[in-house]
Amino acid sequence: MNTERIKILKRLLSEIEGYISNKDLNNSSVSKATIGWQLDHSLKVFNAVCEWTINSNPKDYEPKFNFWRTVLFPINYIPRGRVKAPRIVQPPETILDEDLYAQLHAAKTNLDALLKSPETVYFKHFIFGKLSKKQTLKFLQMHTHHHLKIVRDILA
């Protein structure tokens, strides 16, 4: 397992925690959403992806070429404003600090559980296709970084 990627994911989760006090801030020239929306969405995705991957059936995983994964994964990039978040990972109207902290705690627990899961687990992404455990960890890094970059731009 790539220990560097794990360190990065843990650092990104710590960075999320550091921005919770700014959750109500926004900058409409950067995003229609608040910092809280970015954080809540990132944590919802992180937890859902971890849980889905942990509970996947490794026998169903078949590596397959995916154009977008081939283009975007090597450059660690997710473009802004191209995809609407699925309803299941959209934040509620009101985002509470305690909800963010609870999701953050769950994310740390889920990451530990994912790391202990077999190497053959996978995640099925609606654009990137079936991702191996290694690719799933990379996706979590890319997605979390994408939203933290928006947070940093809101604060700039």
Automatic annotation (TrEMBL):
<protein>
    <submittedName>
        <fullName>DUF1569 domain-containing protein</fullName>
    </submittedName>
</protein>
<dbReference type="Pfam" id="PF07606">
    <property type="entry name" value="DUF1569"/>
</dbReference>
<dbReference type="InterPro" id="IPR034660">
    <property type="entry name" value="DinB/YfiT-like"/>
</dbReference>
<dbReference type="InterPro" id="IPR011463">
    <property type="entry name" value="DUF1569"/>
</dbReference>
